[in-house]
Design goal:
With 165 residues, the chain is an alpha/beta fold. Helices cover 40% and strands 13% of the residues. It is built from 6 helices and 5 strands, in the order E-H-E-H-E-H-H-H-E-H-E. Strand 2, helix 2 and strand 3 form a beta-alpha-beta unit. The radius of gyration is 15 Å and the shape is globular.
């Protein structure tokens, strides 16, 4: 494997989302959400069945790794912090300390990067970790990418919404 890429959906439209995946030369897409759907029509293109169909058309392998999705209890901790700070989930810039500590303790401390690699197709070159948050630092995908990068000595690229000036 050559590199790890992460992407969220908030802020993208359907065309720019899939163009970003193609531009990054993604060949394996790892959905690390617990629930593989998004409410409303704006982001319906990342609802599981539609997403998998489109990725298949683009020649990108899809895998769902539910074991990396944070529990509702950990998500509730972040929600409480967001409420305390008056931040909407979609506007969050970073994860709270409690979320990070609990996610690392409950998930990453037991996560075996080599076994993860065994789940992937042997031809995988560029893997994409996907969840919904706009900012990578506001999402558990950032923590997973950092962990994999450290253990596998791979570079990480975070796909962000292009800034319009």
């Amino acid at each position: 494997m050559n590199k790890i890429v992460t992407i969220g959906v908030y802020g993208f439209d359907e065309n720019s989302f899939f163009k970003a995946l193609l531009d990054a030369e993604i060949d394996t897409f790892c959905d690390i959400r617990l629930r593989r759907g998004v409410r409303g029509s704006e982001y319906a293109f990342v609802n599981s069945e539609r997403l998998q169909k489109k990725l298949q058309e683009l020649g990108i392998r899809y895998t769902h790794i539910k074991d990396l999705a944070p529990s509702q209890a950990i998500r509730d901790m972040q929600k409480q912090e967001d409420e305390r700070l008056g931040i909407a989930k979609r506007n969050r810039k970073s994860l709270g300390r409690t979320f990070i500590q609990e996610y690392e303790k409950q998930y990453l401390s037991r996560f075996d990067s080599s076994k993860f690699m065994e789940l992937l197709d042997p031809g995988t070159k560029v893997i994409c970790l996907f969840c919904v948050e706009r900012e990578p630092e506001a999402c558990h995908r950032y923590l997973v990418a950092k962990h994999l990068s450290s253990n596998l000595n791979l570079p990480v690229e975070h796909i962000r919404i292009p800034v319009v000036t």
